[in-house]
Write a structure and sequence with these properties.
By secondary structure, the chain is an alpha+beta fold. The chain has 3 helices and 3 strands. β2 and β3 form a beta hairpin.
C-alpha cells in the first residue's frame, strides 16, 4: 500500500491523501472543504477501483466554479494512475 498526496486546484479543500493498493482506493482523507460531504464521499470510495469511480466524479462543478472536490478527486486518481504508468515505462 502506498500514500499519494494531491493538492487540488480551484476548490476549498487543500489536500487529498489517498492510501492506494495499485488501482484500489483503500482510504481517502480530504483536508478542508465541506467536511460532512467529503467524509461521506471518502467512505463511499473505500475499496473501489479507479476506473469504477471516474465516470461518477469527473466533470462535477461546484456552483459557478468549473470544478469541484469530486472532480478534483477524479483528477487526482488520473494523475496517480498516470504516474504509475510513467514508472513502468522507465
Amino acid at each position: 500500500m502506498e500514500t499519494y498526496l494531491y493538492h487540488p486546484k480551484g476548490v476549498c479543500s487543500k489536500q487529498m491523501e489517498f492510501q492506494m493498493d495499485q488501482e484500489t482506493i483503500k482510504s481517502l482523507r480530504v483536508i478542508g472543504g465541506c467536511s460532512g460531504n467529503l467524509q461521506g464521499i471518502c467512505k463511499l470510495l473505500e475499496g473501489k477501483q479507479i476506473d469504477d469511480v471516474l465516470p461518477a466524479l469527473s466533470g462535477i462543478k461546484c456552483g459557478i466554479k468549473p470544478t469541484s472536490c469530486p472532480d478534483q478527486i477524479a483528477k487526482a486518481l488520473i494523475a496517480y494512475r498516470d504516474s504509475k504508468k510513467e514508472t513502468v515505462k522507465q
